[in-house]
Backbone:
């Protein structure tokens, strides 16, 4: 599978937006970048699933 330049730019933009929202403590903005369901695996720690994995204001 190859990735296009546009795919790369899209990923960079989402990461940039995520850090801007996080720095501004705009958690609803950061949440808008994610899917409704996700799993965070911190390796060896019980994973947080769904809403529990997102910070609350």
Residues:
């Amino acid at each position: 599978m190859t990735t296009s330049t546009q795919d790369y730019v899209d990923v960079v933009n989402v990461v940039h937006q995520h850090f801007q929202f996080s720095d501004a403590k705009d958690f609803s903005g950061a949440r808008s970048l994610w899917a409704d369901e996700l799993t965070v695996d911190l390796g060896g720690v019980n994973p947080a699933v769904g809403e529990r994995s997102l910070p609350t204001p």
Observations:
- The chain has a mean pLDDT of 81.
